[in-house]
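Researcher: Batch entry, complex prediction.
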Amino acid sequence: NAGVMQNPRHLVRRRGQEARLRCSPMKGHSHVYWYRQLPEEGLKFMVYLQKENIIDESGMPKERFSAEFPKEGPSILRIQQVVRGDSAAYFCASSPLLGQNTGELFFGEGSRLTVL
Amino acid sequence: QQQVKQSPQSLIVQKGGISIINCAYENTAFDYFPWYQQFPGKGPALLIAIRPDVSEKKEGRFTISFNKSAKQFSLHIMDSQPGDSATYFCAVTGTASKLTFGTGTRLQVTL
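Model: Structure tokens for the complex:
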């Protein structure tokens, strides 16, 4: 049973370009979460999605950032017009159905974005 | 956003010693208090978690102590090993399994 798959693992963009990060949750998991980790800092919640629905985007910057989790295919975190401050590791996590809150999310290995 | 304060920021422990990491939270409406372990270049992984109606949970060398009245919980690593060298994050979780993490503790276990 494959874990949470993220790609690309490393991405380099120049200021003003777009970054697209993809996440395939674990099999059977219908909930996806995106977190951002700045160098030497903790993980900050960005957005929580179910299939075709954004449930909680309270941690996502209002501009330039968007996320989706379509009916088919991976979840995508999109950053438009990247700036140097967007350089970070972006982690995706998944969990199974609600009602099984055990404090456990299953994380991918992250996508490391570098903005030149 | 909910605050979770974690200390110390870094910790050096000799092999065989006890590592202790502390966390304090502000809100009481949480379901679980997990600890995550992260190795360099990897994603975090659940190490151990405790419910708020339990004061202590032990799994092997890892123990969580929970003080509900003080809104504090801590991770104890007994007989620390070099392989335990990693960054540890406490977290709180409420509705929808959303995790709010502490700032992390970088643990180094020396020989």
